[in-house]
Amino acid sequence: MTESLIRLTRLPSGLTVVTEKMDRVETVSLGAYVASGTRNETAEENGVSHFLEHMAFKGTERRTATQIAEEIEAVGGHINAYTAREQTAFYVKVLKEDVALGTDIIGDILTHSTFDPDELERERGVILQEIGQANDTPDDIIFDHFQETAYPVQPMGRPVLGTEEGIRGMKRDVLTGYMKRHYAAANSVVAGAGALEHEDFVRMVQTHFADLPRLPASAAVPGIYGGGEFREDRDLDQVHIVLGFPSVAYGDADYYPAMLLSTLLGGGMSSRLFQEVREKRGLVYSIYSFNAPYMDGGLFGVYAGTGESEAAELMPVVLEELRKVQSEINPAEMQRARAQVKASLLMSLESTGSRCEQLARQVQVFGRVVPTVETVAKIEAVTAEDIERAAAHIFRAAPTLAVMGPGDKVPSIGRIAELLAA
Predict the structure, then answer these.
(1) For labelling, which of 266, 272, 296, 327 has a CA lying 20 to 30 Å from the CA of 11?
(2) In Å, how far are 214, 243, 322, 388, 390 from 422, measured between CA atoms?
(3) Active site members
(4) Beta strand pairing status for 400-404 and 228-232?
(5) Vertex 244 angle, CA 44 and 298, to 5°
(6) What single string gives the DSSP state of each residue in 178-215?
(7) Where are the alpha helices (DSSP H) in 325-403?
């Protein structure tokens, strides 16, 4: 990708427009990315960002819910949305000749949604089913319990979907009020990637996003890591375990070392945890590590699903790998981890959808689009000593443990801390 094809314009309203013209593609991915998510919600509003995501496609002043779906699918396009802890996104993928339509629809749903009471009640039922499905999926809901334990009694620890009680009682004015406060021009980025011209796209955005409120960007509540232990003794065939630690934010010096650490430790079939825990000992079907950065911190964790009889042996093996990676990294595994991270980055640039999302996220996190060559250089610059330092910093902090299922043989959080410190 040629970095010179990336253009950025900040409109007088405070709205940022960023594009990348990609050669040899016939499509365009475009979307509106609002820097507001679960961490911006009060306790009474928990789940409202996700509720808004659902309601966005349920009708505007000019379009019914059916018309939104029919218009985008009449040109072969796709429309979707997602909610995260720090961002809510609404996006489409269309052929290059339909960019104006896609921009119109995304702008319409962000500025003129009606929140029809009947549609709201129907969607409330859909979200309640989604929450019920998550609760019935232990390898999914375990991460909500882990997050809540890591960030107790604060927005960063609350579930993205909200709770059944909260969604049942959420009134229409909670949705409209939250949207007015947080869905502002200064808090949003409109991004496009593919076969488009920047100046044309900016004119479309100026037209279709003109009614976004011109308010100051909303401040998020800082996340304060707590740590601790959660256990639920469910009647399950497997024990689901997440062990985690406070990690680094996007702009931290150890951001790239932590990324490579996660890949090296549990990011693929050649990773230490996969090889030692699954291939050599057969203790699990699934095990992996993850590094989740936020604006002001992050979480590093290991997930494992294991049988009740294997649970006692599993944790000491995992903890031994966490200890060893603080001082024993060999060149071959270092190179594999680096290659995996670089390949993942570069392969993602071939997708208009991935590139569109990356543009928006980089602008919101760093205030600019980070050139790919700069990112690759930072990945290349990470040394084994950098990873060992990051591992020592992360794994010597107070841990968080979440266990679901027949987990009596999983050591306590206190015992885990002792074993790591040994």
Answers:
(1) 296
(2) 55, 18, 12, 17, 18
(3) 53
(4) parallel
(5) 60
(6) HHHHH--GGGEEEEEEES--HHHHHHHHHHHTTTS---
(7) 331-348, 352-366, 372-381, 384-395
Q: Give per-residue burial for 244-254: e unless 16+ CB within 10 Å, then b.
A: bbbbbebebeb
Cα separation, 395 vs 406, whole angstroms: 26
- Contact predicate 277/283, CB 8 Å: yes
Model pTM greater than 0.90?
A: yes
H-type alpha helices, 112-185: 117-135, 138-150, 164-169, 172-182
Q: What are phi and psi of 306, to 5 degrees?
A: -140, 165
Q: What is the per-residue pLDDT across 25-77, written as a single tens digit (0 to 9) for each? A: 999 999 999 999 999 999 999 999 999 999 989 999 999 999 999 999 999 99
Rounded-to-integer distance, Cα 326 and Cα 387, Å: 8
385 Cβ partners below 8 Å, 6+ apart? Answer: none
CB of 283 within 8 A of CB of 310? yes
